[in-house]
Amino acid sequence: MALKIVKGSIDRMFDKNLQDLVRGIRNHKEDEAKYISTCIDEIKQELKQDNIAVKANAVCKLTYLQMLGYDVSWAAFNIVEVMSSSKFTYKRIGYLAASQCFHESTDVIMLTTNQIRKDLSSPNQYDTGVALTGLSCFVTPDLARDLANDIMTLMSHTKPYIRKKAVLIMYKVFLKYPESLRPAFPRLKEKLEDPDPGVQSAAVNVICELARRNPKNYLSLAPLFFKLMTSSTNNWVLIKIIKLFGALTPLEPRLGKKLIEPLTNLIHSTSAMSLLYECVNTVIAVLISLSSGMPNHSASIQVSFSRHAHTFSLKYLGLLAMSKILKTHPKSVQSHKDLILQCLDDKDESIRLRALDLLYGMVSKKNLMEIVKKLMLHVDKAEGTTYRDELLTKIIDICSQSNYQYITNFEWYISILVELTRLEGTRHGHLIASQMLDVAIRVKAIRAFAVAQMATLLDNAHLLTGNTQRNGICEVLYAAAWICGEFSEHLEEPMVTLEAMLRPKVATLPGHIQAVYVQNAAKLFATVLRGHEGVPADSMVAQETSQLLIDRLPLFVQSSNLEVQERASCILQLVKYIQKLQQKDVEVAEEVTALFAGELNPVAPKAQKKVPVPEGLDLDVWINEPPSGSESEDEGRKSKGKAVFAKEESRHTKPRYTEVDEKELAKRREVRKAEQANNPFYIKASPSSQKVYQDGVGVEHIPVVQIDLSVPLKVPGMPMSDQYVKLEEERRERNKADKKKKKDKKKREKGEKGRRRRGDSGPESEEDITPAHMVDIVTEEMPENALPSDDDDKDPNDPHKSICWAPCVNTAGYGVDQPPLYLSPHPSLSLAPHLQVCDIQGNLQDGSQVVVSVIFENKCDSFIKSMEFNVLDSLNSKLQRPDGAGPHDGLIVPFQLPPGISNEARFIFSVQNIVMPQKLKGTLTFIVKTDDSSTHEKLDFKLHFTCTSYLITTPCYSDAYSKLLESGDLKGCSLKLEGVNQPFHHLLARICFHHHFSVVERIDSCASMYSRSIQGHHMCLLVKTADQTVSIDAKCDEPGLLGNVLDEIKLTFSQC
Amino acid sequence: MQFMLLFSRQGKLRLQKWYVPLSDKERKKISRDLVQTILARKPKMCSFLEWRDLKIVYKRYASLYFCCAVEDQDNELITLEIIHRYVELLDKYFGSVCELDIIFNFEKAYFILDEFLLGGEAQETSKKNVLKAIEQADLLQEAIEQADLLQEVRLLTDP
């Protein structure tokens, strides 16, 4: 035996140790793989030996090889062997190897449970420490479950070294085995006040991480953390606590107010940038949660932060923080514009992109031109197409945001777009083109200018298409050709443009662009004819133009693109015909122009949906009854057979088919809908159907202000947007001077009063900037008689929207501010000794579901757990229970309540009939736990679903409203309230608030109101008041619902 | 923290610590991607980058890159401090540390990291305490090794 051990240790001297291995690898740079494979063979031999020291050495080498990317999973069992060595030296190596090589699917982990448990309870604290460290890397759900208790005991170990590690590893255990959180939490909380700062900081760490995942449950710890925050000086701990508060404040705004002061103090006093950053982040979160806002604070924080921001690579974080502030306090960010613009020069692309994001949010009418000018400079400088493309899209985004809100001078914008076309190799030609089209179509006043610019573009098309790399940009020619053609009346020299559009080089462009060229050449041709007819001297010119087309078009007739070919041959024939007429001196201009008469207007994306269905048209009814397959054959045979004798008979059979009952119809409708959904050729309403040609009728009433332009329209050559910037600035100056003059005049007139007015020379406010020309953006067209509910996004019955609706259980879906649905306007639930269900709010999900939010508050001094919520269902209203639960089972409330804590739970009810109010009885059972005992308690309550709660505030416009009343579908009912001595607007507000109506129109002491039920019933009220008497005339298509709502309105007013 | 990687300017991995369970394949892919991304960045760029849904914080010390991945809400600056603190610890332990120290004593580098971070969270914020714990564990290891040696010598001399 002895000899064997000695022999082992002598062998060891000849084995490679880790250092030798590393050195060897470094010396075998050429054949590393081969060297390592021999090493692995050696290691395999070493692992076969009994000597634990040899094994540990081998495992250590394997750990190194694992890092280099070699698979060592085959040695997992050897690692476990080394882990279970009784000697610390080897155990340490073993656990290290395990923590590096094991993961959840390593099967030998199962074998380690007992070994780890033994190590955890080892008298040597370093054994325990090594086991804990290792465990933190490879803990599996099974290990967590089996060892949770052992680790929990270690949390109260005498040595802080172990306590600290045990506390930290508990977080990993909670993640793998969540059930352990509940029993371990009290002890964890205790550790927040551990005498050892290391343990304390570990506990703060764990609780902060837990709270980030589910802040609600940790609100009760806020006072304790507040104390820690004001007393601790450890920055690591402070950062964690402040982060925790950042997660808590959105839930409890009062906390935010309390935090602002200590946080601002920290910001001003700390020298640690990381702490400062964390404070700023949390303050931002606080400011967001306090809707009122505190601009002063944010400004001061801003300054302190940006002061550092340009000293270091903290720029990035500064920009990140600013973008958060921008959402709530745009003004305070705008003052740092220059700083942000500087960041565009940064070498780091991520900083530049952040800065771009910020710029998007901070443009205003005043600074748009300046910012875009800077961006244009960067476009020129930028290296690499990705970043340049990013800049390009950002420029267009910035300019076009909110319907061109910030553009005061569209000439400038057009010239920016034209300048952008000079970019090499951009992919965004299409984007520029669509902007050109959009602006030219929607801003009438700019058309003349745009046409002139586009003509220049067409003339210089070779610059855009010359290089094959620049293919993307030729898309703008599509826009240019179309604009020149469509608005050709603005062209100064249509002949020149026409010639440019028919150059042989055009044939190299993509097909869809050529097609537009050909079509618009025809439009130009019409314009030329119109311009030259009637004057005998010019008839030559007209004929020359025809000849030009006849000469050039055959090139396009030969095009391989079908569309080009078809259009070209059509137009060629037309021109040939015109030429014949011209030779006979017939005036054709008017007729040719008529081909392209009418103006194109933008159509709103929603327009299609808004077309009202004409009265008496039911789209779901068959126009011609389709005979079903077998019967039609039958009939066919019959009629064939009998046609010889009598026609009447075959006709006689027809009425049979029209007598299809309702059910059958519904079924067929479903089938058809399904078919349409799957049919790619069935056109559904889509944004692509936006633009349609229209008759000239209906254009005139679009409010477009005719303007006289104060800026010269013709700029020689390619325009520079800078010129427009300068012109615009001059104009603004002029405006300002004019205004000042006026004001001075006024001042003199007003004499004494005028003196109080200073600030005239102060900075120009946003409102002072008037647009260059009263450019009126042509509003998108809506069909005539469109139902004027502009916010159909809010329409919960819209089948397209319900998909988004479903998951939004909490406050109303996607940002629509909808007041909560009060199921019981006044808390009608009885008070229990221990528990108060103090608020019920509902929110509707679809036509048949109501969501009830219940706040549970524990008002007693004991712990409440195992709450079970149950409601006795009625035929009409049912509590939705999980699948598999019986109709009388209660729902388990998913939380427990420590004393003084409240929490909210939501329950979904399905409701069939909304005509009648409902009262549901329910019980809440729960266990009250005191120090020495626990008792089972029960609380009865009633849920009151009023009819009002089924109403949704829906805006309605007066013309739709009157149409609704005229339709005659609604049944009337009226109500008189005596002795109401509130002002009329209070009264209306009350009805709006409590009963979810909206005011349609109000004239003096008379108002019309509207609301809609979740199932789509319309409800209209006419409220009049005179001498403390209020009369309400109401109409609704469901008289029962109306009666109940009126009763509820009466009740509301009797209670005040 | 999700993981920490140390790698050289040539892209060789020198140390890796994973605090989230991932398979070897994923680990390899992630470290390859990150090493490439970071080495491609120029010296004056900022130390943070967004990568998948994580934030990467890295810093270069001499020829070694230290790189950590943290979650979205984590504080980038404190992560930089963690990196710096770790470098200081290595420096104190090895006495002006260099890349070779970490290559040849890679297990020691791990032991130090394990005393400093546990499960991806800072475990001990005092440098002194971390070094003390390491020293004591080393002492224990030496004592065991010496005892082993003595035992062997006794066996040899006293058959």
From TrEMBL, chain A:
Span list, region Disordered: 622-662, 724-772
Cellular compartment(s): Cytoplasm; Golgi apparatus membrane
AP-3 complex subunit delta domain sequence ranges: 660-801
Cellular component aspect of the GO annotation: AP-3 adaptor complex; axon cytoplasm; endosome membrane; Golgi membrane; presynaptic endosome; terminal bouton
Keyword Transmembrane helix: no
Signal peptide stretch: none
GO BP: anterograde synaptic vesicle transport; Golgi to vacuole transport; neurotransmitter receptor transport, postsynaptic endosome to lysosome; protein targeting to vacuole; synaptic vesicle budding from endosome; synaptic vesicle membrane organization
Keyword Transport appears in the UniProt entry: yes
Keyword terms: Acetylation, Coiled coil, Cytoplasm, Golgi apparatus, Membrane, Phosphoprotein, Protein transport, Repeat, Transport
Biased composition (Basic residues): 737-758
Alphabetized InterPro entries for the sequence: AP3_complex_dsu (IPR017105), AP3D_dom_metazoa (IPR010474), ARM-like (IPR011989), ARM-type_fold (IPR016024), Clathrin/coatomer_adapt-like_N (IPR002553), Mu_AP3 (IPR058898)
Gene3D superfamilies: Leucine-rich Repeat Variant, Longin domain
Pfam families xref list: Adaptin_N (PF01602), AP3D1 (PF06375), Mu_AP3 (PF26171)
Start-end of Basic and acidic residues biased regions: 645-662, 725-736
Domain of life where this protein originates: Eukaryota
Membrane topology value: Peripheral membrane protein
Function summary: Part of the AP-3 complex, an adaptor-related complex which is not clathrin-associated. The complex is associated with the Golgi region as well as more peripheral structures. It facilitates the budding of vesicles from the Golgi membrane and may be directly involved in trafficking to lysosomes. Involved in process of CD8+ T-cell and NK cell degranulation. In concert with the BLOC-1 complex, AP-3 is required to target cargos into vesicles assembled at cell bodies for delivery into neurites and nerve terminals.
Alphabetized PANTHER family for the sequence: AP-3 COMPLEX SUBUNIT DELTA-1, DELTA ADAPTIN-RELATED
Assigned protein family: Belongs to the adaptor complexes large subunit family.
Protein name (record): AP-3 complex subunit delta-1
Native source organism of the sequence: Oncorhynchus kisutch (Coho salmon)
Gene name, Swiss-Prot/TrEMBL: AP3D1
TrEMBL record, chain B:
Coiled-coil parts of chain: none
Membrane topology classification: Peripheral membrane protein
Keyword field: Coated pit, Cytoplasmic vesicle, Golgi apparatus, Membrane, Protein transport, Transport
Superkingdom of source: Eukaryota
Record GO terms (molecular function): clathrin adaptor activity
Gene3D superfamilies from the UniProt entry: 3.30.450.60
Domain AP complex mu/sigma subunit: 1-140
Any one cellular-component term (Gene Ontology): clathrin-coated pit
GO biological processes: intracellular protein transport
TM region positions: none
InterPro entries, sorted: AP1_sigma, AP_complex_ssu, AP_mu_sigma_su, Clathrin_sm-chain_CS, Longin-like_dom_sf
Family matches, as CDD domains: AP1_sigma
Subcellular location: Cytoplasmic vesicle membrane; Golgi apparatus; Membrane, Clathrin-coated pit
Complex formation: Adaptor protein complex 1 (AP-1) is a heterotetramer composed of two large adaptins (gamma-type subunit AP1G1 and beta-type subunit AP1B1), a medium adaptin (mu-type subunit AP1M1 or AP1M2) and a small adaptin (sigma-type subunit AP1S1 or AP1S2 or AP1S3). Binds to MUC1.
Function in brief: Subunit of clathrin-associated adaptor protein complex 1 that plays a role in protein sorting in the late-Golgi/trans-Golgi network (TGN) and/or endosomes. The AP complexes mediate both the recruitment of clathrin to membranes and the recognition of sorting signals within the cytosolic tails of transmembrane cargo molecules.
Family: Belongs to the adaptor complexes small subunit family.
UniProt name for this protein: AP complex subunit sigma
Organism: Oncorhynchus kisutch (Coho salmon)
Lineage: Eukaryota, Metazoa, Chordata, Craniata, Vertebrata
